[in-house]
Amino acid sequence: MPQKIVKLTVKDVRFPTSLGQHGSDAMHTDPDYSVAYVVIETDGGMKGYGLTFTVGRGTEVVVCAVKALSGFVVGKTLEEIVGDFRGFYRLLTSDGQMRWIGPEKGVIQLATAAVLNAVWDLWARAEGKPLWKLLVDMSPEQLVSCIDFRYITDALTEQEALGEACCTLLHNSLGSSLSNGTVIKKPIQLMSDYGARFPNHQSRVFLICGFVSLTLSRSLTHSLTHSLSHSHSDLLRKAQTGKTEREEQMLKEGYPAYTTSCAWLGYSDQQLTQLCTDALASGWSRFKVKVGAELEDDERRCRLIRQMIGPDKTLMMDANQRWDVGEAISWVTSLAPFRPLWIEEPTSPDDILGHATISKALAPLGIGVASGEQCHNRVMFKQFLQASALQFVQIDSCRLGSVNENLSVLLMAHKFQVPVCPHAGGVGLCELVQHLILFDYISVSADLNNRMCEYVDHLHEHFTSPVVIRNAHYLPPKDPGYSCEMLESSVETHQFPGGVVWANLLAKAPE
After folding, report:
1. Which CATH number, 2.40.40.20, 2.60.40.10, 3.30.300.180, 3.30.390.10, labels domain 5-130?
2. What is the set of active-site residues?
């Protein structure tokens, strides 16, 4: 029986995490972890739950945006939506008037994520599966039908994602007689394929009357030859091989995680030491430290945590957009002796070329660049990948347009062979993004090398299906849905401004 959506409600739910400096970093010094919390109800009595994450003030603006989108949802059946999910995604993001306050970025995209997260939760519940399993069980054709490929076809087409496009163009161009110094002439569109596949290789290119004359270096020749037998064009269909084994592996072992909970910027050295000691005792081997306020403080704190975890465990650093490009290079160079795997968000999240410059400068130091938690949409991720600006892609379950848009980023990252290490933490982000990264490993990347998912040990007790961590790994959720549902008691007591938690705090606040 079709499930018609008859009601959508949204609430402003906030947790006063700033009181304990939880979540504090160089740019967000007093965050109150918050959500715009969405519930959709059907005439059949089913409910879907969704959310998007904020850090306090401004959540009320997102709530208003969700209400503005509700008219596109109420009155539709679940079957109608998922039967043309690409069309429904475009309906939400491309309304002729609403898109003016985006398009596909900022508050309106956060609201879109909250609404769509609720729809995905409803769909998974209707199928009786956790969301990751719903995705894993979908055919490649079903998966790509959920993705809006508009604006990214120069990096990834629907045919590539499905596997219908092979390397015939490349194969016909190069044949089997490649050697150092080979010169080929083909239409200009060929160059975009080379550029997308091998952005870091150097070659001499001349445009001659609409044709490309490409003189191949030895390294590029080797890479092109290698690609003939290792094409990433057939992304989803290739990953069908071994899916069952990878799913069983995840159910048994879980997905590797790293912790950020030990080293928020506002924590004292004593607190950092105690939390790090506890984490080591619990089996954690990957740690992230917040940096960017004062260089001397960063050096002291990084030295402390590196001494505690030893030389063999993994350390990452996160500046949360603090620096200009040149400052980022200089600052991170000073921190290089502590051997971070990556520096996260070293500059403005919108500065693609700045990230590329930083990546190039830090490469000799063996330090990668990670970003994505405030990347507006798939188009920006496309450009980050095309510019070789990131060595680690950090998707976010509530910043992009829900599962739909994250699917496109997972596929692009796989094509460009950049590992995905999702952003999590906040309120519910761990609960949601675990589904996406499990799907990525089982059905897309089939690779755990240099891959891990962030974990923050805050506020999980407010969810009906909280994350389960064992031996520093995410265990796959078993309950149907997208793990978005919060305890009713938590929602009511933390609703802003009338919930009892906030009523008490606001009553104590100075005039």
Report:
1. 3.30.390.10
2. 290, 423
